[in-house]
Amino acid sequence: MRITSGLVKGYKLKIPPGDRVKPAQSIVRQAIFNIIGEFVKEARVLDLFAGSGSLGIEALSRGAAWCDFVDKDKKCAEVIKENLVNTRFEDKAKVYTMKAKTFIQRPDKGEALDKVDFIFLSPPYAQGVDLELLKKLAKISKSRGLVIFEHAKETEVPAEIDSLKLLDQRTYGAATVSFLQKG
């Protein structure tokens, strides 16, 4: 899997071993970034269920100012750190080895997290919609910030979750990407 655009276009990312991680396909990443366009420049990004870090690293490659990567799997965290070093983005990111909900609930994250412009959410498809997690993301997202949720196309996403409103959905094969904006 390669970065599709920006400073490190063409860089081949390492993927965590095993079959538990399914990185966002290039076509899905390209589509996401074609939609959010230039707004990613200088943005603060959060990549939850980060896996290989492909979405966050793509954002950094396209000019994001900062990205926090969160994955509970130690092997994934190690691969993300290696990918960050190899792309020379290690000074624009931090990797956390913990569950997404644990990260969001940490008291020391409160101030930094209320300034998040884009939240990439790519949990295992079998998880479906975690309404509790989405409600927490609504609280930490910047006003007009986007939660970009990749899920199985069969997954039903409510039109409104707290202050998040479903703006758009795009389907690419077995994956659907839902764009939820904080209003």
Q: What are the key terms here?
A:
alpha/beta; 183 residues; Rossmann fold
Q: What does this protein structure show overall?
A:
This protein has 183 residues and is an alpha/beta fold. The protein has six helices and eight strands; from the N terminus they run H-E-H-E-H-E-H-H-E-H-E-E-E-E. It has a single domain, classed as 3-Layer(aba) Sandwich (Rossmann fold). The chain has helices at residues 26-36, 54-61, 74-87, 100-105, 110-113, 131-140, and strands at residues 44-48, 66-71, 93-97, 116-121, 141-152, 160-161, 164-172, 175-182. Strand 7 (164-172) and strand 8 form a beta hairpin.
Secondary structure blueprint with pairings:
Elements: H1 26-36, E1 44-48, H2 54-61, E2 66-71, H3 74-87, E3 93-97, H4 100-105, H5 110-113, E4 116-121, H6 131-140, E5 141-152, E6 160-161, E7 164-172, E8 175-182
Parallel strand pairs: 1-2, 1-4, 2-3, 4-5
Antiparallel strand pairs: 5-8, 6-7, 7-8
In short:
By secondary structure, the chain is of the alpha/beta class.
Hey, roughly how much beta strand do the residues contain? 25-35%
Q: Main sheet: which strands, in order across?
A: 3-2-1-4-5-8-7-6
Per DSSP E runs of 2 or more residues, the count of β-strands stands at: 8
Which topology does CATH recognise? Answer: Rossmann fold
Overall shape: globular
